UniProtKB/TrEMBL annotation:
It comes from Ectopseudomonas khazarica. This is aminodeoxychorismate synthase. Keywords: Aminotransferase, Transferase. It is an enzyme of class 2 (transferase). The keyword Transferase applies. Its EC number is 2.6.1.85.
């Protein structure tokens, strides 16, 4: 099998210096580990100028679109990493699936308004990437064998040149406003609890949207957000015409490596404390909360079932349950589910059987999604979708697009939500939905 070529560059803990050189290029995309502040992620991955861009047609089914993605990978051609090199990506697809891509997988009503008009998915097919490995302290340009020599030379010259000062700016012309008021929020929670008591469902993730008019360069907004809230599954995707995805997600959706599958659902949240004593008390309260543990376990069971559709019978395991992870604004309760892909199944089969992630829908999933569509006034778009890469070897990693913003058509949108169960108190849930994104909203309001 042909091997990719690697060209070393000066190592950067922060990908900003390299990415700002390509951020306005067609298809520019960055998957960002949040270093040096965030500690869990290993790789930064960036690229631009894709060989092809793929988005689903208006009436195209999910499975037909996923098959087109397989065809695009096949057209690029197989390749492997240079011997003894551990690399996440050797050429392939990078992009997003919106939450509403799930409508192509399941029959859902259409009560909510699609006022953002975001494509349900958008991927580029990339024959090169700049990869920084924070475990080894290296940065490399990777070239797939299909990339022409002239393009290799152009990219080498671009990234080896001295960096230039960047004067990008971003601003809001008004503060963020919620789409719904507290009374509407309370009514929605009460309706969900009526469904739960009637036996329709066990848990529903309900979210509200915050919006503000904006102008300037979304990259400047991303840099400010990255500094305020570094997370291991961050990302920036240039959508063209001044539009962009800005994601500060702490949550992995699905990872596939050599046929081994991992998902790390988050369910259970507390604010960070005002001092060390209060912070420790918040963390201990979360770890001891029977309600939060029960919510987390519901989602673990849902994901075990989802993974079972594409994974070898008997391979689904839960090696980690109710672990504490702490971020600048919140503590989270996180679990881990692992499995092994079944013979004849690939990462896109796994997506088809598991999307959208159960941690941001509720249980059972389809009924929860129907209730979300009934009670949330507008479509989620990017929120609770996924940013991901999938390379020609079948290696994949993906996020749940929470703590994420969409800059589109002169507005920036941000969403906050949480899982609602029978004994949820609406006031506490409302406050949690604000707490989760408060640092993001306030950071942009200060620019």
């Amino acid at each position: 099998m042909p091997s990719c070529s690697l060209h070393p560059l000066p190592y950067r803990t922060d990908p900003g210096d390299y990415f700002q050189r390509i951020r306005q290029a067609p298809g520019a995309v960055l998957l960002d580990a949040g270093r040096p502040s965030a500690k869990r992620g290993r790789y930064d991955l960036m690229s631009a100028w894709p060989l092809a861009e793929l988005a689903p047609a208006h009436d195209e089914s999910a499975n037909a679109f996923l098959q087109r993605l397989r065809g695009a990978l096949h057209s690029l051609g197989n390749a492997e990493a240079p011997s003894a090199m551990e690399l996440p990506f050797v050429g392939g697809l990078i992009g997003y699936l919106s939450y509403d891509f799930g409508r192509r997988l399941e029959a859902l009503p259409a009560h909510s308004v699609d006022d953002l008009a975001l494509q349900d998915a958008r991927f580029g097919l990339y024959a090169w990437a700049l990869i920084s490995d924070h475990q080894l302290g290296t940065s490399h340009l990777l070239f797939h064998p299909a990339l022409p020599q002239a393009e290799r030379q152009r990219l080498l010259a671009l990234f080896e040149a001295p960096s230039r000062e960047d004067q990008a700016s971003f601003r809001l012309s008004q503060p963020f406003q919620a789409d719904i008021d507290e009374d509407h929020y309370r009514q929605a929670i009460e309706r969900i609890q009526q469904y739960i008591l009637a036996g329709d469902c066990y848990q529903v993730n309900f979210a509200q949207r915050f919006q503000a008019p904006c102008g300037g360069d979304p990259w400047a907004a991303y840099l400010a957000l990255r500094q305020a809230c570094p997370t291991p599954f961050s990302g920036f995707q240039n959508l063209g015409d001044g539009n962009a995805i800005l994601s500060l997600s702490p949550e992995r959706f699905l990872k596939v490596s050599e046929g081994q599958v991992e998902t790390r659902p988050i369910k259970g949240t507390r604010r960070r404390g005002v001092d060390a004593v209060d912070d420790q008390a918040q963390a201990e309260e979360l770890l001891a909360s029977r309600k939060d543990r029960a919510e987390n376990l519901m989602i673990v069971d849902l994901l075990r079932n989802d993974l079972g559709r594409s994974c070898r019978i008997g391979s689904v395991k839960v090696p980690e349950l109710f672990a504490l992870e702490s971020y600048p604004n919140v503590h989270h309760l996180v679990s881990c589910v692992t499995a092994e892909l079944a013979p004849g199944k690939d990462a896109l089969d796994l997506i088809a059987g598991s999307f959208p992630g159960g941690s941001i829908t509720g249980a059972p999933k389809i009924r929860a999604m129907q209730i979300i569509d009934e009670l949330e006034p507008s479509r989620r778009g990017l929120y609770c979708g996924s940013l991901l890469y999938l390379d020609v070897r079948g290696e994949m990693d993906s996020s749940i697009a929470i703590r994420s913003l969409l800059v589109k058509d002169g507005k920036v949108s941000c969403w906050g939500g949480g899982g609602i169960v029978a004994d949820s108190a609406w006031q506490a849930e409302y406050q949690e939905s604000v707490t989760k994104v408060k640092v993001l909203l306030e950071t942009l309001e200060r620019l």
